[in-house]
Amino acid sequence: MPSFDIVSQVDKQEVKNAVEQTNKEVSNRFDFKGSDARVEQSELQLSVFADDEFKLGQVLDVLRGRMTKRNVDVRCLELGAVEKISGDKVKRPVTVKTGIAQEKGKSIVKLLKESKLKVQASIQGDALRVSGAKKDDLQAAIQMMRSSVTDLPLQFINFRD
């Protein structure tokens, strides 16, 4: 029976490269001379530091641009609240989301069932397996997912006949 998996993944090495490029650009830019603007990474947790909220926004824009150039979808970034640290300096935690949350998985399964396509979907951890009798039905399901789920970067892998 043909099937495929729906996942939400990011390439950790590309995220690391984007963070390094962001730090390099920020250290070379004239408007950041003498400031403590940087991005620190530990696994999939990022911390963005800057002197004020305006510069924090600029560093985040540079980070988004670098991630886009390295083919990392910026929809996987979840911004935390801005925290004040010593003096005027601010910090903002950013989480790189991977996997499909349980609630989102349930809504995707419900969406597939309501579509009247002849496919079955099952939640398997942080991924979804979609199976059907015909390849055409599975391809129609992929097209529907691409058009209807816009708040989460989805990849379609393990397409099997």
Walkthrough of the structure:
The chain is α+β, with helices and mostly antiparallel strands. 38% of the residues lie in helices and 29% in strands. Strands 2, 3, 4, 5 and 6 form a five-stranded antiparallel sheet that branches. It has a four-stranded antiparallel sheet with strand order 7-8-1-9, with helices on one face. Helix 1 (12-28) crosses helix 2. The longest helix is centred in the first third of the chain and has 17 residues, at 12-28. 20% of the residues are buried. The mean pLDDT is 90.
Secondary-structure element sequence?
A: EHEEHEEEHEEHE
Ends: how far apart? 6 Å
Number of DSSP E strands: 9
Mean pLDDT: 90
Strand content: 25-35%
What are the defining features of this structure?
161 residues, alpha+beta, five-stranded antiparallel sheet, four-stranded antiparallel sheet, 4 helices, 9 strands, 38% helix, elongated
